[in-house]
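DM from R.C. (forwarded with permission)

"hey, sorry to bug you on a friday — could you get me a structure for this? deadline for the figure draft is monday and I only need the backbone to look sensible"
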Amino acid sequence: MKPIKIGLLGLGTVGAGTFRVLRRNQQEIIRRAGRGIEISMIAVRDLPKAQAIVAGACEVVTDCLQVVNHPDIDIVVELMGGTEFTKELVLTAIANGKHVVTANKALLAIHGNEIFRAAQDKGVMVAFEAAVAGGIPIIKALREGLTANRIEWVAGIINGTTNFILSEMRDKGLDFATVLKQAQELGYAEADPTFDIEGVDAAHKATIMAAIAFGIPMQFDKAHVEGISALQAIDINYAEQLGYRIKLLGIAKRTTKGIELRVHPTLIPSNRLIANVEGAMNAVLVQGDAVGASMYYGRGAGAEPTASAVIADLVDITRLATADPEHRVPHMAFQPDSIRQEVVLPMAEITTSYYLRLSVADQTGVLADVTRIMADFTISIDAMLQKEPAQDETKTDIIMLTHQTQEKNVLAAIEKIEQLSSVYGQVTKIRLEQLS
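My reply, with the result:
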């Protein structure tokens, strides 16, 4: 049978990995897909570098439109990154009747609704397993493997850079800036790490998972995004003493009031499997009503792990290319006319538990004042740790863990507590999830 022809946009880390794995495992892929999958054209910026990689195996061009408009290309694989120009390329490929595979989480989180609608109208597929958690097949799990379940929540360590930084801060007691520099030297962090350390990358991925888990549109603009750059080593240490570890989590949760969609540092009980995911690894925990909790673990980035997901999508499309569009797996798990609008809750309305650290004067009555304010806002204290002041010190730390309460209650209580003359500076607040 005639091979499927691939047009590749981008030959960076993931693109080169896809090229290598596809050629190396071609015979195995043919056995699985039923026909060959061949890259016939690649669009790149750096022509000499690309030609050295492909060594004449396919045509290399510098104009992306040559790829998306080429009549012999069956599937366009977009591995360039970016959003606006890339969106136009993807929409052009779809208009030309080509299937699309992408690893671009930002593109889908921001423009996914438009892209999927265009693909549905044209009867082509858009596959994006590599857009979330690299080589971990979490999209397939949510979209197909767990299709019998009402998904209750999804919580993921979905950014390897931040997980590496937090692991090093905990293990070695180093501050954020020191570990970030190490991460850049080791290649775990970009020269400009803003998207990673400020939670934006994780929020793109959480947006995609929420849409698939709950059958709602992509709504990145409604996600709460909070990174790890303000996190202090002292809080990681105190959390450890209380039996918790701090991870940057992407959380999507279904509640009776609406959907929680948030990314932020989170305390997790240290005996949970996901709390023990270290280094640059990723993990996603899914709670379904029928299956209960299931966890998906592996490498969330890198050339070949991500290429594995890209090629899995290529095999899926190759298998289903002749199927009627109405009988394919829907892009967002639910049939297009069943995607429904649900309220995405503002952060003030979310309900969770909290870690609070206060620097207070070492004097009688301070704790009573603080607990009275907490009670006024119906906040119940689950555990508390009060440190002995160092010699000749007149202030000390109080650490409290709360039971579940609404964020707006905690914010109001913190505002009152910070006004006490016996409290120094700002109260440190980190959210806590039991994930049970």
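R.C.: lifesaver. The chain has a mean pLDDT of 95.
me: no worries. The first helix runs from residue 13 to 24.
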